[in-house]
């Protein structure tokens, strides 16, 4: 159980619920690097455009090739993976990767904001060609779509600075937990954590977790004290901690690491093209540059696979 089965996703300085860093009072855009003087904030650098690969472009289905673009769906509320900046533009690691994949295939990426739970149905109905929104590659998803792996993430938890409620990530029974609707973490509470609480004779997590449509609202609920802890993908938690200027802290270790997958319609040549593009970006260094730009290089993979879920 990991990563946005969901998915999940911030807001900018001083703008209530404004979309670029992390919605929260007293939140301001600030350098979130290692702390070295002058270090750039994640996302502030640029990445060189990827070179087209004719052999991969030849794999693109005729209908997509004739349009000249890849329509990519992302739930833009899950920084640093996909979110809106202060101008309302959709940005993030997944967006940069989508652009680079399209460039490898001789196309341009048209990244569109979509509710997370609508993305896979949208792929199946041909509304979108790709879904890039921090989807965990799972056996269940692979039954209806192809998943091209490109990153590894786990689940993580955050609490208010100083952990005033003495939250233990290993025992959340009876605690108020915020999660994004439709995510792996939401399923984890319902299918794993609460049954274990019942078995142990302990109170369950109320409501199977307090669920929010947007990850920004999850983070806001924790900062405001309406919830005691939030669960989300590890890069999302790490970024939220940086962007809330010390109001939050991570608790426990990252757990249940699993690959993210790009969602593609089942059994099409586009799957092969996308997998080849990701592998080519890994080989030529573009992939690393993008992950470095967003401060998420810890999730880098060496080999992209198709439908590689273990569970």
From TrEMBL:
<keyword id="KW-0732">Signal</keyword>
<feature type="domain" description="Solute-binding protein family 3/N-terminal">
    <location>
        <begin position="69"/>
        <end position="298"/>
    </location>
</feature>
<dbReference type="InterPro" id="IPR001638">
    <property type="entry name" value="Solute-binding_3/MltF_N"/>
</dbReference>
<dbReference type="Pfam" id="PF00497">
    <property type="entry name" value="SBP_bac_3"/>
</dbReference>
<feature type="signal peptide">
    <location>
        <begin position="1"/>
        <end position="26"/>
    </location>
</feature>
<protein>
    <submittedName>
        <fullName>Polar amino acid transport system substrate-binding protein</fullName>
    </submittedName>
</protein>
